[in-house]
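Dear colleagues,

As part of the handover before I leave the project, I'm documenting each prediction I ran so the next person doesn't have to rerun anything. This entry is a single chain, and its sequence is reproduced below.
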Amino acid sequence: MSEQTILRPVGFFQRRWQRQVPLDLLFWRDMVVVGTTINIAAMFASLMALGLKASLPVAMLIFFAPLPYNIFLAAAVWRTSDLAAPKKAASARTGAILWLVIATLL
């Protein structure tokens, strides 16, 4: 059996948690672009649910559905920033925390 058949592809979350994705890509693409898009979609979906007379708890569940993903991305950025220069790491960590707070509240 060859070595390639033994190795399994590593999943999306596992690669990010194990710091295998570059910090810039993780911060800008995964968190800022994709994460923000998911949060905006959840916000609109929750507003639509309210407009369609869904209960407030249902709308809140829709709104907060991305929260575990947001926390994961912020934690992954925090962990991956250990591999960057101190100034860049501090900026990435601050940005991740600010993004998490804004994404959760808005």
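The radius of gyration is 17 Å. The chain has a mean pLDDT of 92.

All the best with the project,
I.
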